[in-house]
Design brief:
Layout lengths: L7 E4 L8 H19 L3 H5 L2 H14 L7 H15 L5 H18 L6 H11 L1 E6 L16 E4 H4 L6 H11 L6 E5 L2 H10 L3 E5 L14 E3 L4 H7 L2
Parallel strand pairs: 1-2, 1-4, 2-3, 4-5, 5-6
Length: 233
Amino acid sequence: MSDYSIKAVSLDGDGTLWDFEASMRHALELALAELRAHAPGEKARALTVDRAIAIRDRVFAQRRDLAANLEAVRLEAFRQTAAEAGAPGEALARRLNALYHENRFKALELYEDVPRALQALGESFQLGLVSNGNSYPEKLGLGGVFQFTVFAQDCGFAKPDPRIFALALERAGCRREQMAHIGDSLGDDVRGAKNAGILAIWLNRTGAANETGIEPDYEIADLREAVRICEGI
């Protein structure tokens, strides 16, 4: 293997390895059911999963001081959700937050192509997880799969900030031209990797049109396609 071959592959988590959207919605449904038990009025009954998501997104946009710590964002969102339901209180917000995270991790499922792809990639490359989320491998039955991990809430900066990729390179012990990054987000994964000088592979399972002006080095529809790409460089 030459010094310019790929030696490490970093991957995004949410939306790349597992279906975050489905597990998030399921966990929010259960959290809202708990909230209604404490606030049985009309305000609580009117709260929907989409409304809870909107509150969370508002917190993320307004509280940039919390942006790299998604657990703190979610807790603040539950504070505001409980208040909107007419049941403000720190204890209830923390109860909802704990219930949400417990059920979100239980409901997470890997995409069908992921197990074989991780196995094949792991036979040839160091594997890393570089995530803006908070789904740690050990919570998902993936302990030992990744040789390095970088989480935004631990290091204080999030993709597409090139510093998170620099930290991944440091932990992998390789140069930028020796790493490939795979993710489903053009804005966070592809733009961030390219700005850091790392090969960027866009995982586009749904065949979505790219209207962003951000150009990946490669586009794939199945994670297993990345094995051939990385081995051929």
